[in-house]
Design a protein that fits this description.
Blueprint (H helix, E strand, L loop, with lengths): L4 H23 L10 H6 L2 H18 L7 H30 L3 H11 L5 H7 L2 H27 L8
Length: 163
């Protein structure tokens, strides 16, 4: 476990930032009055997440690999962060939907039905805690793998060019 101490630390930081982002969304009205724009605003979390992955892999490079890291090592570190985040996902989703924004699902169901995008049954099946936990798990893993690969490429130690 000591091998992944840095990844664990950054997964905790990322979970805290996720909860802060959900709080920001709620406070800005994206979970009620501006609900139809919530999906677009939520996508903006990619920027802080990318930065966190960058800082995490830079931390791993500096403090675990002594300043020298290859793409594979960085990629594995990114995947581990994603996996740990997925393990935290049920907790962060529960906190989000029970404490930060308890009416979110109700509001999304109403909007989806009123806009005729879904039937009431479809909306209830889609907008609930269990469904969001599973969406967060699959999205978190796929997002984490892709971002981990990109950031690992960026932070890998470059070989000096031979002349």
């Amino acid at each position: 476990m000591k091998k992944f101490k840095i990844e664990f630390k950054w997964a905790i930081i990322m979970s805290i930032i996720f909860l802060a982002w959900m709080t920001l969304e709620k406070q800005l009205g994206f979970h009620d009055t501006k609900l139809k724009w919530q999906m677009f605003f939520t996508m903006l979390i990619i920027f802080p997440n990318f930065l966190i992955y960058y800082l995490a892999l830079r931390d791993k490079k500096k403090n675990y690999y002594n300043g020298v890291i290859n793409w594979k090592q960085g990629f594995i570190s990114g995947v581990v962060i994603s996996f740990i985040m997925v393990l935290f996902s049920p907790i962060t989703q529960f906190i989000t939907h029970e404490f930060i924004t308890p009416l979110y699902f109700e509001n999304m169901i109403s909007l989806s039905v009123e806009s005729k995008r879904m039937t009431p049954e479809q909306a209830q099946n889609y907008f609930n805690l269990t469904a969001y936990i599973w969406q967060n798990i699959s999205g978190g893993l796929s997002f984490g793998v892709v971002i981990g690969a990109i950031v690992a490429y960026i932070i890998q130690t470059k070989e000096p060019k031979k002349q």
